[in-house]
UniProtKB/TrEMBL annotation:
This is Uncharacterized protein. It comes from Pistacia atlantica.
Length: 400
């Protein structure tokens, strides 16, 4: 282990030694500050700090900010079971000339129980970003996908990418995707964002976004051209799930049905596609997420929903196995049909299913319903409903 004391050969780090007949070392020679520690020891210290103090520590200096956003920091926090998870519900009220990003949070203390209620986090004006451009604002949020990297939430729309910093409560624009996509799959793998599907281009591609350089690039061609697909990631694999085929006969026939219940697997490190999988029982994929080494897929069969779990850890004998999970216990007054929309989020050892809206206003249909599946106890429980003002929000889990 590296020494905590300054280098005695570095004149800038210590007080010069006082010479005498007997060499004595000044007390100041043993005095050091936390800022003089090497990165690995500083990370050891910072990884033990309570989550509530991290936003303030990120403002100390640029070095601390970079260390707090590094993968090494989050790996240490995870190893010590100190990662704090918070659900963020994000909703953009699209109005011209004024547009507002509304955010509410739900804390997951100790990964055991959900908080008692959602808390309004902030309302941010986005006029300076959209500049009254109705073409950019129209349909932006309904087609957008969310991705969280550390404390930052990336809101990726058709022509606009925004990043919301949950520590500083600020929102800034980032580079848009290489070409417009609608209803695409999105997931974070090794600190970068991968998107696929949702494009009518002749060749479907998988794009990678590097937050460090704020750049997009094409990494591979996809085996299928999907529309309305979802994304998840486990063990370095980007899963592109469900959706319909993009072609002239877009939504009809057996082939479209195969797309709706299929799952393509892209290995990011080897840059190769693994064998595609099919969700058992068919149906249309309406929600998906990753949690504790599994991919969870919610499928719809007209008025019935089913939840499936895919073993996604490749170094285990169970890799590739499907198992059916107890279906979500929706209250009797909730009518399930093909207009109901869901957001599925993995948070620690929990899978959170949020009903984020319906295409039509049906009496008795409650929006904002939150159900939580405990992957350890294998049971469902009811969580606090989304606030009324953001019932049609997108939901993402943020860890720090």
């Amino acid at each position: 282990m590296k020494s905590c004391f300054p280098n005695p050969n570095d004149n800038k780090s210590i007080t010069p030694l006082h010479k005498s007949n007997h060499f004595t070392l000044s007390t100041a020679a043993f005095t050091t500050t936390i800022s003089s520690l090497p990165d690995d020891l500083l990370l050891e210290c910072l990884s033990r700090v309570p989550s509530s103090s991290l936003p303030s520590l990120s403002l100390v200096c640029r070095r601390w900010s970079l260390l707090l956003l590094s993968p090494s920091f989050f790996n240490l926090r995870r190893h010590r079971n100190r990662l704090h998870s918070t659900l963020f519900a994000v909703f953009l009220s699209a109005s011209i000339p004024t547009s507002t990003l509304s955010i509410a949070t739900l804390s997951l203390p100790d990964q055991q129980h959900l908080g008692t209620s959602w808390q309004r986090d902030s309302d941010l004006k986005t006029d300076s970003i959209f500049l009254g451009n109705s073409n950019l604002l129209h349909g932006f949020f309904s087609q957008a996908r969310l991705a969280a990297i550390g404390p930052k939430i990336y809101i990726i729309g058709k022509n606009v990418t925004l990043v919301y910093d949950t520590w500083t409560k600020t929102i800034t624009p980032r580079s848009p995707m290489s070409f417009p996509r609608k209803k695409f799959g999105c997931a974070v793998v090794f600190g970068k964002i991968y998107v696929a599907g949702g494009s009518s281009r002749a060749e479907s591609t998988v794009d990678e976004y590097d937050p460090g350089t704020d750049t997009w690039r094409v990494v591979v061609h996809a085996p299928r051209r999907r529309y309305g697909c979802l994304g998840a990631s486990v063990d370095g694999v980007f899963y592109v799930i469900g959706g319909l085929k993009i072609c002239c006969a877009a939504t009809a026939g057996t082939e479209a049905h195969v797309y709706a219940s299929s799952m393509d697997l892209y290995d990011v490190k080897s840059r190769a596609w693994l064998r595609s999988r099919t969700v058992p029982g068919g149906g249309c994929v309406v929600a998906a997420c990753a949690a504790v080494g599994h991919v969870y897929v919610l499928t719809s069969h007209a008025v019935e929903l089913s939840l499936w779990r895919f073993a996604a850890r490749r170094n285990t004998a169970a890799f590739g196995e499907w198992s059916r999970i107890k279906r979500p216990p929706f209250p009797p007054q909730v009518r399930l049909d093909n207009t109901v929309k869901f957001s599925c989020v993995g948070a620690g050892d929990k899978v959170v299913l949020v009903q984020v809206g319906s295409a039509r206003n049906t009496r008795g249909l409650r929006e904002g319903l939150v159900l939580i599946y405990d992957t350890v106890g294998e049971c469902w429980s009811r969580g606090p409903d989304l606030p009324d003002v953001i019932r049609r929000a997108a939901v993402v889990n943020v860890e720090w």
